[in-house]
């Protein structure tokens, strides 16, 4: 299990020197959590805690006074340079750029956001040609345990003309706090000439990177004000969206202080420290705890829905948009997937019975489903549309055109496609066919005239079979979102999944999957229009 491994191998600055007494550690954690929770509103309380810390341990107190000033500055008065470092930085290898990593794709290829960070790094490496460059980040590719963020980053920089002699690879870290700890050790032990650091990352990550690298330098100094390295500037790629909360930063600072378990409780939002307002405790997260303890997340899927989640009997494996998304989710938890077959008629029954932790197989978010179970935030827009023979594309251009006795509409049983057909096509001839993936071929061969299905499935089959068409793909009959389905009582997992989906949207992963499995099969509206 990844989490337990991290807890065993993660370094801390507390290991390097005298171990802090428990009262000192408690004060540091209380200080970090109060500011992380309340921000500037906690100024009076944090001042009291700092005063007490300075009384108990004057050296630690002075260091944390410095760290708290930096924390306040990076969040309340941030100075972020878009794309380019400012003029006037050292023209020698006294300057070192720190390029922060980003989670790799399962196949170890880099996501677009990481490439954008490297593009910024390359441009600034050209501006400051004598500077050193640290690529920092460990192994985060679920399908290739040998690959590391830092290794892939270094390859990209070298392939794009950066001198390998300038590049330093730190490939052990799995958190931003570890980025700072390991990088500081490498630089102090092997590159003592480095005095000034410049953080290269996405704009929303700059404050956290600046804080943690600055905090490491302060904590490792003999006393506050005698740091051997300082963070002097930054250059950021402007990400379309993204934030890192002050509470996340609190967890990272606590990780630096040596309490790894509490840090990861904060990262996973399962902490409850001191007398702060009631927050979630470990006992309130039964589903997540079981998943982490067993190292397995059980994923329900009908396995009949191309291109979302489909079971290939020949290989005994699943593929599709939802399959990859589920694998990303499992990777984020550090666990394996156990697929549990279900069917559309029994989907809700199986969910309520707890046969799996969540289901993901092209499931539309509906109020009816939300009344009976839990549904995540939507992650992909969908809508009902027509799949028909290409020769009939001009015939089925409205719901009314389909709702005729002579039109044979074929659907699989138990899902929303059948429900839509029964409610909206009462005059059409409805044929129920048990095997969903066979229906497009039966329409193409003339066994049926129309299949009502989702936009993504219609587009996929049109791309696979030239005999088929989806004439209303840009004018669907309904609009909705796909989501993950969970049994009630799994609110802790629901919260984690919603944050995971927000992250996948922010880092562009959902767009990548949509392009790979859906949009490349669908011609654009412009392409469908006749030439003028």
Keywords:
about 45% helix; 6-stranded mixed sheet; about 525 residues; about 15% strand; 5-stranded parallel sheet; elongated
Description:
- By secondary structure, the protein is α/β, with parallel strands linked by helices.
- 43% of the residues lie in helices and 17% in strands.
- The chain has 21 helices and 19 strands.
- The strands form five sheets. Strands 6, 10, 11, 12, 13 and 19 form a six-stranded mixed sheet that branches. The chain has a five-stranded parallel sheet with strand order 3-2-1-4-5.
- Helix 4 (58-76) runs antiparallel to helix 8 (203-220) and helix 9 packs antiparallel against helix 10.
- The longest helix is centred in the first third of the chain and has 19 residues, at 58-76.
- The chain is elongated, with a radius of gyration of 27 Å.
- The termini are far apart.
What's the arrangement of secondary structure elements?
Elements: H1 2-9, H2 22-38, H3 43-56, H4 58-76, E1 95-100, H5 112-127, E2 132-136, H6 149-159, E3 167-170, H7 176-190, E4 196-202, H8 203-220, E5 230-237, H9 246-257, H10 260-267, H11 286-294, E6 296-301, E7 304-305, E8 309-312, E9 317-319, H12 321-333, E10 336-341, H13 347-352, E11 358-364, H14 367-372, E12 374-375, E13 380-382, E14 384-389, H15 399-402, E15 408-411, H16 416-424, E16 429-432, H17 439-444, E17 450-454, H18 455-464, E18 468-469, E19 480-486, H19 491-506, H20 509-517, H21 525-528
Parallel strand pairs: 1-2, 1-4, 2-3, 4-5, 6-10, 6-11, 15-16
Antiparallel strand pairs: 7-8, 8-9, 11-19, 12-19, 13-19, 14-17, 14-18
Helix pairs in contact: 2-3, 2-9, 3-4, 4-8, 7-8, 7-9, 8-9, 9-10
């Amino acid at each position: 299990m990844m989490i337990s491994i991290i807890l065993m191998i993660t370094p801390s600055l507390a290991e390097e020197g005298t171990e802090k007494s428990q009262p000192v550690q408690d004060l540091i954690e209380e200080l970090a959590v109060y500011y992380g929770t309340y921000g500037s509103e906690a100024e009076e309380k944090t001042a009291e805690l700092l005063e007490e810390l300075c009384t108990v341990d004057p050296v630690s107190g002075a260091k944390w006074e410095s760290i708290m000033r930096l924390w306040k500055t990076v969040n309340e008065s941030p100075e972020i340079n878009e794309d380019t470092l400012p003029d006037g930085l050292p023209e020698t290898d006294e300057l070192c750029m720190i390029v922060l990593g980003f989670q790799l794709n399962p196949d170890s290829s880099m996501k677009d956001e990481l490439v954008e960070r490297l593009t910024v790094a390359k441009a600034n490496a050209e501006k400051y040609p004598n500077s050193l460059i640290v690529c920092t980040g460990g192994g985060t590719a679920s399908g290739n345990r040998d690959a590391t963020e830092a290794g892939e980053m270094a390859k990209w920089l070298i392939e794009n003309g950066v001198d390998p002699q300038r590049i330093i690879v730190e490939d052990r870290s799995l958190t931003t706090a570890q980025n700072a700890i390991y990088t500081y050790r490498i630089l102090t032990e092997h590159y003592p000439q480095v005095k000034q650091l410049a953080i290269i990352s996405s704009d929303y990550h700059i404050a956290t990177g600046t804080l943690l690298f600055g905090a490491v330098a302060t904590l490792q100094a003999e006393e506050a004000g005698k740091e051997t390295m300082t963070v002097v500037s930054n250059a950021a790629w402007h990400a379309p969206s993204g934030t890192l909360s002050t509470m996340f930063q609190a967890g990272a600072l606590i990780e630096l202080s040596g309490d790894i378990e509490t840090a990861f409780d904060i990262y996973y939002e399962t902490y409850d420290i001191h007398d702060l307002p009631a927050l979630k405790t470990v006992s309130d997260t039964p589903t997540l705890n079981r998943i982490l303890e067993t190292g397995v997340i059980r994923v329900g899927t009908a396995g009949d829905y191309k291109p979302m989640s489909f079971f290939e009997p020949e290989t005994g494996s699943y593929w599709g948009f939802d399959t990859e998304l589920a694998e990303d989710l499992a990777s984020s938890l550090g666990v394996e997937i156990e697929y549990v077959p279900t069917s559309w008629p029994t989907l809700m029954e199986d969910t309520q019975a707890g046969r799996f932790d969540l289901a993901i197989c092209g499931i539309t978010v509906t109020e009816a489903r939300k009344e009976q179970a839990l549904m995540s935030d939507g992650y992909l827009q969908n809508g009902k549309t027509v799949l028909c023979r290409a020769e009939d594309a001009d015939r089925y251009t409205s719901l009314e055109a389909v709702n005729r006795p002579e039109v044979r509409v074929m659907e699989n049983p138990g899902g929303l496609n059948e429900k839509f057909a029964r409610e909206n096509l009462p005059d059409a001839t409805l044929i129920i066919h048990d095997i969903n993936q066979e229906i497009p071929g039966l329409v193409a061969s003339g066994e049926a005239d129309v299949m009502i299905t989702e936009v993504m499935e219609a587009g996929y089959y049109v791309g696979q079979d030239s005999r088929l068409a989806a004439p209303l793909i840009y004018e669907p009959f309904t609009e909705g979102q796909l989501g993950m389905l969970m049994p009630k009582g799994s609110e802790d997992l629901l919260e984690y999944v919603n944050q995971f989906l927000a992250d996948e949207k922010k880092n562009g992963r959902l767009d990548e999957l949509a392009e790979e499995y859906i949009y490349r099969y669908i011609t654009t509206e412009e392409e469908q229009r006749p030439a003028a």
